[in-house]
Amino acid sequence: MPKLQVNGIDLFYDIKGTGEPLLLIAGFLCDHAYWSLIMPSLISQYQVIRLDNRGMGRSSAPETPYSLKQMANDVAALLNHLAIDKVHLVGHSMGGQIAQELVLAHPEKVQSLMLLSSLAKGDGLFNSIIETWGELCANVDLKLYEKVVLPWIFTDSFYAIPGTIEGLIEFAIRYPFPPATHSLHHHSQAMLDFDTTDRLQKIHCPTLVLVGKQDILTPLKFSQQLAQGIPNAELVVLEGGGHGFLIESPDTVISAMLNFLRKLKPAYGS
Predict the structure, then answer these.
(1) What are the extents of the domains in the chain?
(2) Which InterPro entries match (predicted)?
(3) Which of 126-130, 135-139, 226-230 has the lowest mean pLDDT?
């Protein structure tokens, strides 16, 4: 699978499907594989581009600090490399923060925007959690780290399914491209420094803000702030699923995403 040398790193990316380009940006602790459960529905209609953010998966993991603007610049460079003029842009959690920086810096590149379980600025609780996750990774093994993180990601009903959480932890332990501890620290610090609250009104592309009603990490109020700040944004609240609804309830998520994209087609003549 291809890599692009850009901004001092090797950036891993993956392209599948045909049609209008749609780019997916994963969040904290996740690489391009996080989107796997919704990929079949997307690649049947779109050219889907996924990447590993710097510090994750098969992309380089510099020791120096990262910023979300820097990661947005990585994405912009990838689009330039692929000669893609406009893209449907999707970001989950931290990926949604990167997506905001990308559309603010390069509005001409973004045809539509989908912000999943994301935020414009963290509150005290969120920042404390993220800061702890950034520090904890250097002090515990991956199994215990996952045990600490996952209760914030999935709902009690998901935990009630026998073997599900244990399977996810085992998958993380066996995954051949685990994140470096310094990368998670740098990602957490980048999220703490993020704030687009005074810039949201500058986002003018069609925007979907999607959140699970049971999300306790990036709760509904964060998505409400995004939807209220971005002109003409549409807020959709999914009854089932928490922060990890791409794994917990992928059918519901993909239905909301495709419904949003279908409504755009008359406007864009596609």
Answers:
(1) 3-268
(2) AB_hydrolase, AB_hydrolase_1, AB_hydrolase_fold, Epox_hydrolase-like
(3) 135-139
